[in-house]
Each structure stands twice: as C-alpha cells, then as structure tokens.
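User: My instructor asked us to take a sequence, write out its structure as tokens, and then describe one feature of it. I'm not sure where to start. Here is the sequence I was given:
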Amino acid sequence: RSKQSLMAPRYAPSLLSRLPPLAFLLQIIFIVLFAFFVEIDHHVTVEKDFMDTYADFQDVHVMVFLGFGFMASFLVRYGFSSVGFSLLIAAMAVQWATLLNGILLHSTSNWMVRIKLKSLVNAELSASSALVAMGAVHGKANPVQLLLMSLMEVTGFVINQWLIHSFFKTLSSTMSLHIFGALFGVMTSWVLYRRENEPRHEKEKFDSRSGLFAMLGTLFLWMFWPSFNFALVPEKIIAYGTYLSLAVSAVTAMAVSVLSSPNGKINLVHVQGSILAGAVATGAAVTTVPWMDMAIGFCAALLSMLGFRYLKGHMLFAFECHDTRGVLHVHAVPGILGWCAYVAIRLARAGDATVAFRLAVHNICILLITVSMSLVMGIITGLFLKWSFWKPQQDRKCFDDQTFWEFPHLAVRK
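Assistant: Let's start with the prediction itself. The structure tokens for your sequence are:
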C-alpha cells in the first residue's frame, strides 16, 4: 500500500462531480451576463485621479488575494486549502459583486453596467466581506460549499448596501462590511455545527511553519489596511488614524496575550487577529482625531484578545458555534465598537437635540438592518449548504488538505 493511501483520509469525496460543473456553469453565466449588460466606462477623468484610484486598487488587491489567504494558513494541515480556496472564492465573488454593485447601485436606465477602476475596487471590497465570512467555517466546508456561500454572502451584502442607500440615501461604512461578513459567517457555522468535533478537532492546531506563513499574511494586511479604509471611507484623512490605531493594536495585543496566558507567553494565533482589530474599529469610527484613533485601537485590541482567550471556547459549549478564525472577535466586535464611537462622537458634536436624536435613530437603524440581514442570510445559507447533495466532508476529514489536493510526493509506487 502506498504511503499516500496510509496518510490521506480514507474514502475522500471526489470533487469531480460537483466542483467542475458548478464552476463552469457559473463562469458561463457570468460571461453571458457581462456580454449583454456590462461595458467599460471610456470616460477619461484626470490622470492623477486615475493613478490615485489605481494605487487603491493595487493595495486592496494584495489584501484580498494574498493577505486573507495566507493569514488563514495557520492550521498545520490546511495550508493549500487556505490559500487556494481564498483565491477561488475571491475570484468568483469579484465577478458577481461587479454585476450586483452595478445593477443595484450604479446601473443606468437601460440596465447597462458601466465599470471603471473604482468598480473593481468596490467589487474587491465586497469579496473581502465574503472572505471574512469564510473564516468562521474555515476547514469545515468543501470548495463547492464555499463557492455557494461566497455568492450568497456577496448577494446579501450588496442588497444590504442597496437597502441602506434606498432608505437613508447613504452607503454604509466599513462597519457594515465587517459586521455583516462576521455575523453571516458565524450564523452559517452555527447551522453547520459538527458536534463530533467537540471539544477540539485533532487537526485544528498550528506549528512554527504554518504560523510563520500566517503571520506573513497578517503583516500584508497590517501594512495595507490604511489603503483599505482609504478606499471605503469618504474622509481620506482616515489613513493617518488607521495607521496609528494599527500601531497601538500591535503593542496592546502582544501585552494582553502575555498577561492572559497562564504561562506568560504570546499566543501567535490570537495576536494575528487582534493586531488588526484597531483598523477595523477606526474605519467604522472615522474620528479624524489622532488620540481618539489610538484609544479606539487600544480598546479594540483589548476586546479582541479577551474574546480569543475566553469567549471563543464558551461560544462552542454554550451556543454550539465553532468560529475557526475568530472572525467575531477580529471583525464584528471591533466593528460594533467603532460604530459606538462614531455615534458617540457625532452626538457630542451635534449642537441641537433634534439633530442628535435623528442622527442616533439614523445610525441605529443602519446597524439593525445590517445585523438582521446578516443573521437571516447566514441561517438561510447554512441550511442550504447543509444539504447532503454538496457532499460535505466527513468529520475526520476536516482541516485536512489531503481531502481535496494532490500530494504526488507522498505516493510510493512498488
């Protein structure tokens, strides 16, 4: 018997009957839709504006296709899948988001979608929300389920943007991206929960090599996140505050990790997520005041680290919800913290009680719509993905690359 047959999970489900047909079908549909409803906007603006937008596009592009994938590669036997499936999901989600954003938010009277470089940036931002959601089911879903999940997440996210734009004449901020993606993923994970994986799957662990690659992806996100918020928020001064918040988050996460560890040591996986929490919160708060951004980064990293250390395990036992990458603590909690800071600052600056009341109601309604849409869409998606037709892998095959990828170097032929 070959070495590969001994090491790989037995009776691994073949992707042949599900992934190629679905991928080809979706690509053909998208090509046809693009042929009839999408055209390039040839209106040339000032060259400087184009170069500024292209710089944003480059930075967001690196974050979506490199940063998120490598950040997820911390699991010792799930590196290929982390990077490969992130690429697959983002590439498909960008196409779908380009269509949906154009049709619902920027379409013309004849339903033609005119895309420009900013359209691709917005599509990649929508795809990043799907990657956030994927973190909650990381290692527990096959690529077919992940593809379908990404399409449904992008659909829900864009519809949520459209509802907010229709009712409040504004597009939601970065808060919506992180909160929607995180809660959507958590609810999907709750529906797909596998009791057999309690208390922790034997393959859900990391070593020095996988941790190093994951830290590399985290550093890419850490370095380019000011551009991410810059592309999302109209106030371009947000880039300064994001950088300061990231710096404070990195220091705070390291310190809290040592303090909360029984052995007085740093937990690499916890730190990887928490050093980004400040940027998430700052993007939602939009304070434009340096010390406020730094304080928000401190609080966000503190809450994120404590959530990783203490709340993640309680969620598993109390609510039967397994969040592999802790997206609730990296994206949802900091996003809500930033939203609270945003509302509090605007209320303090409002000179009239009536204006303050309207502002509070306005932002509370936006948050409630975002949370409600994410929870409902997450549950619907989870129920849809739970269908046995999608051939989900067995419990012992979770968090394992050999379920889906070839390893020719392990095969020993006699």
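For the description part of your assignment, you could build on this observation: The first strand starts at residue 38 and ends at 40. Try explaining in your own words what that tells you about the chain.
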